[in-house]
Give the backbone structure.
Amino acid sequence: EDKVVQSPLSLVVHEGDTVTLNCSYEVTNFRSLLWYKQEKKAPTFLFMLTSSGIEKKSGRLSSILDKKELFSILNITATQTGDSAIYLCAVDSGGSNYKLTFGKGTLLTVNP
Amino acid sequence: DAGVIQSPRHEVTEMGQEVTLRCKPISGHNSLFWYRQTMMRGLELLIYFNNNVPIDDSGMPEDRFSAKMPNASFSTLKIQPSEPRDSAVYFCASSFRPDTQYFGPGTRLTVL
């Protein structure tokens, strides 16, 4: 059974701090790893990673994948209160079809 | 485009009643996914369709759950009979590629 494990489950920081969120996975047929941000409603897409060692960056957010050690990290620098959300990691293991297995998420709270 | 549309947004029902959740995917997307999200289990894939055909329903909890996609613009998820443990937020998502899986706003189901 495919498995995606995120850590920590929750994190409380102050504005301006840098955070690192972790995602490890065990799947039979890896194709890509995706990060989503979920505020009060539906998840929204952040990054898709397919190759090891190549950093994806969007503003203060960045992510990298290690396919040998089977994990990914999501970094957020200079955090703001608007970064408060659940961050979900998902692995596409669908082979010729699309199938995402999600981790339980990390709840990030950024206090002013 | 209006995005993925789900109805109802909230549903409160009594144990034993039939519940039908509805989803209209984004026009042109050929994959549709039903997810359930709870605090305990996170986001779980229930079933997904590709070109209106169910591809993987291994996530459907039991025979009380059924899903249909009679055409490319409509899908239903039915629970009959409903139980209190079915209380959750049910998301529908559609995609053309895995990195652009768009989620609907969700249906918050409460079974009393």
